Amino acid sequence: MSGVSLERIVKRYGALEVVHGIDLEIAPKEFVVLVGPSGCGKSTTLRMIAGLEEISGGTCRIGDRVVNRVAPKDRDVAMVFQNYALYPHLSVADNIAFGLRIRRTPKAEIASSVEEVAGILGLTPYLDRRPADLSGGQRQRVAMGRAIVRHPEVFLFDEPLSNLDAKLRTQMRAEIKRLHKRLGVTSVYVTHDQVEAMTLADRIVVMRDGRIEQIGTPMELFNDPVNTFVAGFIGSPPMNQFEAVVEAGERGPVAVANGARIALPALESLRHAQGRKVIIGIRPEHASIEPMPGASTVPVELDLIETLGSEALLHSSIGEVPFVIKAETGGDTAHLARVEAFHVAPERIKVFDHDTGRVLGAARMGVAA
Amino acid sequence: MANMNLYSRGDKWFVIANMVLVGLFTIATLYPFLYIAAVSFSSGFAAAAGTVVLTPVNFTIAAYERVLSEPEFWRSYANTFIYTFGGTAVSLLIIIPGAYALSRPQLIGRRFWNLFVAFTMWFNAGLIPFFLNMRDLGLLDSYFGIIIGFALNAFNIILLRNFFESIPSSFEEAARMDGANEFQVLWKVYVPLSKPAIATITLFCIVARWNGFFWAMVLLQSEDKIPLQVYLRQLIAELSDDEEFTSTLISAAYSVETVTAAIIVCSIIPVLLIYPWVQKYFNKGILLGGVKE
């Protein structure tokens, strides 16, 4: 299995540069998800790996081979498209076999490959049907079958689940994960859905405006986002963020926002930061409704409770600033209606620079400078 | 008819007016066919006297006996088949790749080439330059000249180009990822997806070729190469000039009118037979299920 390596990859349409020199190393067998809002360049990057878009600058390698000038068909990659792009005039079996026929694979081999792939994807009963006679999930499976039948070095997925309904999406997500485990093919997956990214990825690449914001495992991105953008993008519901001013407290720095005083982690960069404006980030799941030793108590005004079952989202506000709390229901929501404050431990709080949005150094006072 | 209660008063009148108009239009289109068929089976006397309205008067097949016994009729009929099907095949072979090339965004100078093709729809050299051109190319009086000289029609190219452009580009991309080259993308993906459009231009080509009269008359001299339409005109002229034939008109079982009508009926039949075969491709939704937008 081959890895994929992108070095200073640039995409320009005329004078307009949309991807600004991306560096990315994808290890063999790794499942990497490119995630970001619309127009962030994630699909363009994927299409450059596929060979469907010309690479304006930089080097793209698949395995050890530079593929900048290699035609898509010779890159040994397969792609699953957002709109499936199944050939409507061909049966399921012929759709899966199309690539093999084009490559003049012997007939007997085609038949056994199609059979095998149909077995893996549960498509055996539908081999004679046309795409129009299939459900959305089945079509998506045919599109994947068309990709895996060729045993490519790399799979590329371009938002493959975005046309499915929520239930089917969850189901197909698990199937893709299972398929990757089974086949172990290097995969690059593009989505704007951070839940898909979190559940599927070995590593996530968060992109914005044609640049990579952060690369890391799902938990790294969740626990240690490098800036407010990643913090707001990864996690559902997103991290609460609000402006605050740093003051010196009795036991360390505190943030003051809308009258609330919140103890901050003992970061080296906050030591002499009195009066500094910062952005405070607190994940909804880290705001507890039960008091904890050492935690700050922040009074809130409860606005609305969204019940999800075992959990509930408490939409509230600190003064004017909206704040979401994720709380366990324990099977009953009556006690949640009486919530007047949340409690947060200092080590759970992220502090970002007010102007750049970058997280303030993880270095802690007294540990390392 | 749909339940009229679902329509408002104004809608009802609109529907009724539509039906009346469509009905009138249908009659206006259908009547000449019925009339010609009736004349072809009527006696020469009745046809000349103008008493045929909708059904044959003094039913006879004498006109058909006369027409079908002419070897020239059969030869010109065969020629028409050659021009029609040979010409249509050559046209499609040129139009399909041409339209595909013009529809591709990566074609260098695409705007220029499209304008270049469209230009010929509005402007052409005219009769005499075209004739001289054909003469200088040595294409006068030949099957090949008729077939190749009229193989390309800008309207058909643009029609098909527009259809190709409407096919989502992910089909092309998927085929390219599957390993197809440009020709395979065209013949294995775009052509099967474009059956309705290709059926339409095939029908246009066939009908134009089948009815082709003027240029065949101008460009062909040999009797053995003329198509049916030119033969029809010659026969009408011949019969009209034949004094013996016209003077014995009253007693004749057939006349110029009935013979003409019989040939017209013979020449219409193949096109009538082709249309239902082509029509089955005129169903929409061929792209259904392939992509989801």
From TrEMBL, chain A:
Keywords: ATP-binding, Nucleotide-binding, Transport
NCBIfam families: PRK11650.1 (NF008653)
Gene3D superfamilies: 2.40.50.100, Nucleic acid-binding proteins (2.40.50.140), P-loop containing nucleotide triphosphate hydrolases (3.40.50.300)
SUPFAM superfamilies in UniProt: MOP-like, P-loop containing nucleoside triphosphate hydrolases
Domain ABC transporter: from-to ranges: 4-234
Pfam families to which the protein is assigned, alphabetical: ABC_tran, OB_MalK
Matches recorded under InterPro entries: AAA+_ATPase, ABC_transporter-like_ATP-bd, ABC_transporter-like_CS, ABC_transpr_MalK-like, ABC_transpr_MalK/UgpC-like, Mo/tungstate-bd_C_term_dom, NA-bd_OB-fold, OB_MalK-like
GO biological process, one term: carbohydrate transport
Entry keyword annotation includes Transport: yes
Family: Belongs to the ABC transporter superfamily.
Taxonomic classification: Bacteria, Pseudomonadati, Pseudomonadota, Alphaproteobacteria, Rhodobacterales
Superkingdom of this protein's organism: Bacteria
PROSITE patterns in the cross-refs: ABC_TRANSPORTER_1 (PS00211), ABC_TRANSPORTER_2 (PS50893)
Molecular-function GO term, any one: ATP binding
GO (cellular component) term, any one: ATP-binding cassette (ABC) transporter complex, substrate-binding subunit-containing
Organism name: Limimaricola cinnabarinus LL-001
Name the record gives this protein: Glycerol-3-phosphate ABC transporter, ATP-binding protein UgpC
Automatic annotation (TrEMBL), chain B:
InterPro entries xrefs: MetI-like, MetI-like_sf
Record localization: Cell membrane
Family matches, as Pfam families: BPD_transp_1 (PF00528)
Record keywords, A-Z: Cell membrane, Membrane, Transmembrane, Transmembrane helix, Transport
BP GO terms, sorted: transmembrane transport
TM helices/strands, residue ranges: 13-34, 41-61, 81-100, 112-131, 143-164, 185-210, 259-278
Membrane topology: Multi-pass membrane protein
Origin: domain of life: Bacteria
GO cellular component: plasma membrane
Segments forming domain ABC transmembrane type-1: 77-275
KW Methyltransferase (keyword) present: no
Principal location listed in the UniProt entry: membrane
Assigned protein family: Belongs to the binding-protein-dependent transport system permease family.
This protein's name: ABC transporter permease
Lineage: Bacteria, Pseudomonadati, Pseudomonadota, Alphaproteobacteria, Rhodobacterales
